[in-house]
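Practice problem 4.
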């Protein structure tokens, strides 16, 4: 039993599955009932695939030995009936460990050798190269074998100081590294740089992912953690222990890497069992714990209510033994309730917003199209009824008028197509400025600014240039999108004025959150460079590693902006094109009716019957899209607009996730550009 956590995650998974289903239904509707471009369908397919992989990442961050791993064991792996992940006094977890479920492969633990630090590849890049990792298959039915395999996470090796220095893990002048010394020449270093565990646990299968991290020095040594993994996690759990209080290094971690992140973060005061005292009453113990909560809150500058006091160890024991009293006393239930009530819904919100942003406007448009089709059919019937009893001359006049209307419409469409070509060209230019080659060039320029001087001064120069260049591309994207929007608006205006088509107001491209992330990277750089420990010459290695981490994150941002721009173009142009094409089809249909009736006045009944039959078919389309919209509205919480009302204007909501898997879609080209 874990207080709402399991049901919370299951709810998250159900919602996600239902979203996948509704987007798939919409895609199929488009396939069957419209001339949807293959690229658009592919994009929707990508979206559903990405949704299926959507995870809720909870990162555990703290100084060593505060009980991070013990808490992970207690929260998620107590069913194992023993300690699954190694947790021990002193430094235990030696490398950052990601735990998740991937249905595509057998359970495994994958370990990245520490020697890969010699290379200039980021961990993110190495994740795509399985050969670089040492992989151990996990036999989940054998607990002892599992525990043995997990011991790898705590593995260390003894190396000569020169090697450790070359790996950027050892610095004679750093007083914090004394614990590594084995003898005069040798030091102990982690055997692995990073671990990935694929484990079929129900919570992980439902989309939860966990990041366990080692203490402070390890965090500083792997800048990718502090620059991307931790800021990109959806929730951070920061642990303190009652026996150590808030030490200088606890405070540093909280201050530098936890408190200022926009993602949800929580302070957890662990090891309260150390304050349990048989010679004190429960009230006295309660008061002692409360005092420690208050002093922790004061030091971290947060309210006492936001510090959760727990005993991870007793929670694990309580769960393994089924001891409800111990479990209750451990305080872990409050933490589980918080995870279920706050973290999961906030992740769900991000997922919903991203789907609403990508699909919402298009779905609304599809619904509008279906209703317009019915409307046009009704008009057709009225037209036909109006024709009954008319002579051929009158029908001929009506046909002439309709023909004229259609010619005017075709002329407007031709003009629009000229604009469309210009827009396509500008769209290409825009996307070309945001592609990987462009980013490579920007990185190259920034490396030139550093000019192989891996000092903090060089780093600042290189990063300033990188961020300036990226910012300039973002500016260009905003400008270009503004221009495209204006062009389309004035081209569409003619349809509104001459042909009475409803007004449209496409959203603006909003890149503010990417800019904020860029600014954050610059702040990270400045902070790194201001740290006296990093200014020393020996830290050249770290400067380079830090730069690689920054560039990795910057590249992800750049790819995200490209996807954002690509989506924006689609959301802006597609609905207009659909509307114009639909209107044309309707005019043609009406003209065809007039032509047939003109040729044979006796065919009105027959035509009316044919239109009525078509109407039944279209009614099915309308019903389907209504169902899809209803489910979509229910899942995303957006209001369903009663049909016939003016569309809402302004930008749809923005998600704040930096979901890397979405990048898969980046190579897709816009269909209308081809
Ligand atoms: N008394 C007590 N001990 C605990 C509690 N939680 C963890 N411990 C012990 O504290 C030690 C460190 O716990 P870990 O889970 O390894 O701590 P960690 O934060 O993961 O440490 P690193 O992996 O070194 O970063 C272990 O011996 C745990 O058994 C607790 O609630 N009470
Ligand atoms: Mg640990």
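Answer key:
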């Amino acid at each position: 039993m874990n207080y709402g956590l399991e049901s919370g995650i299951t709810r998250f998974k159900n919602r996600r599955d239902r979203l996948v289903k509704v987007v798939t239904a919409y895609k199929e509707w488009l396939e069957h009932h419209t001339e949807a471009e293959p690229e658009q369908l592919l994009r929707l397919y990508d979206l559903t695939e990405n949704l299926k992989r959507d995870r809720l990442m909870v990162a555990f961050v703290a100084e060593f030995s505060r009980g991070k791993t013990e808490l992970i064991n207690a929260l998620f792996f107590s069913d194992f009936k023993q300690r699954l992940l190694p947790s021990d006094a002193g430094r235990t977890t030696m490398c950052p460990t990601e735990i998740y479920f991937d249905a595509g492969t057998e359970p495994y633990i994958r370990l990245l050798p520490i020697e890969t630090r010699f290379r200039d590849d980021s961990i993110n890049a190495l994740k795509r190269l399985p050969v670089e990792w040492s992989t151990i298959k996990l036999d989940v039915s054998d607990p002892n074998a599992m525990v043995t395999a997990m011991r790898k996470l705590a593995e260390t090796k003894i190396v000569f100081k020169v090697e450790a220095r070359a790996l950027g893990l050892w610095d004679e002048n750093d007083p914090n590294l004394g614990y590594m010394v084995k003898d005069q020449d040798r030091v102990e270093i982690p055997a692995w740089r990073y671990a990935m565990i694929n484990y079929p646990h129900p919570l992980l299968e439902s989309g939860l992912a966990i990041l366990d991290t080692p203490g402070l020095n390890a965090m500083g040594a792997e800048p990718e953690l502090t620059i991307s993994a931790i800021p990109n996690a959806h929730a951070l759990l920061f642990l303190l222990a009652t026996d150590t209080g808030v030490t200088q290094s606890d405070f540093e971690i909280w201050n530098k890497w936890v408190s200022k992140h926009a993602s949800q973060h929580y302070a957890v005061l662990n090891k309260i069992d150390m304050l349990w005292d048989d010679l004190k009453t429960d009230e006295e113990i309660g008061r002692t714990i409360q005092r420690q909560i208050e002093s922790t809150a004061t030091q971290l500058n947060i309210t006492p209510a936001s510090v959760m006091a727990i005993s991870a160890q007793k929670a694990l024991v309580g769960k393994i033994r089924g001891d409800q009293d111990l479990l209750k006393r451990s305080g872990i239930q409050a933490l589980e309730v918080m995870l279920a009530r706050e973290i999961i819904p906030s992740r769900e919100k991000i997922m919903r917003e991203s789907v609403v942003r990508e699909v919402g406007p298009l779905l609304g448009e599809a619904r509008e199209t279906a209703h317009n089709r019915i409307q046009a059919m009704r008009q057709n019937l009225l037209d036909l009824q109006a024709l009954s009893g008319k002579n051929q001359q009158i029908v001929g006049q009506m046909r002439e008028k309709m023909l004229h209307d259609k010619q005017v419409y075709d002329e407007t469409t031709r003009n629009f197509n000229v604009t469309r070509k210009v827009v396509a060209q500008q769209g290409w230019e825009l996307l070309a400025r945001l592609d990987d080659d462009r980013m490579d060039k920007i990185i190259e320029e920034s490396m030139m600014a550093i000019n192989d001087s891996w000092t903090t001064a060089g780093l600042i120069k290189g990063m300033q240039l990188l961020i300036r260049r990226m910012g300039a591309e973002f500016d260009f994207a905003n400008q270009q999108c503004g221009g495209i929007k204006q062009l389309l608006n004035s081209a569409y205006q003619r349809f509104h004025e001459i042909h009475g088509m409803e007004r449209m107001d496409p959203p603006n491209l909003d890149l503010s959150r990417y800019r904020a992330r860029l600014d954050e990277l610059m702040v990270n750089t400045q902070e790194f460079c201001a740290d006296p420990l990093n200014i020393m010459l020996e830290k050249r290695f770290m400067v380079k590693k830090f730069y690689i981490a920054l560039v990795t994150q910057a590249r992800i941002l750049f790819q995200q902006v490209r996807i954002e721009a690509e989506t924006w173009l689609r959301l802006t142009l597609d609905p207009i094109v659909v509307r114009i094409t639909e209107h044309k089809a309707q005019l043609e249909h009406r003209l065809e009716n007039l032509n047939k009736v003109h040729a044979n006045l006796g065919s009105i009944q027959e035509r009316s019957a044919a239109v009525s039959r078509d109407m039944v078919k279209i009614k099915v389309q309308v019903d389907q899209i209504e169902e899809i919209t209803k489910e979509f509205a229910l899942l995303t919480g957006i209001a369903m607009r009663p049909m016939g009302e003016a569309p809402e204007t302004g930008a749809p909501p923005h998600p704040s996730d930096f979901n890397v898997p979405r990048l898969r879609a980046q190579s897709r080209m816009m269909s209308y550009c081809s």
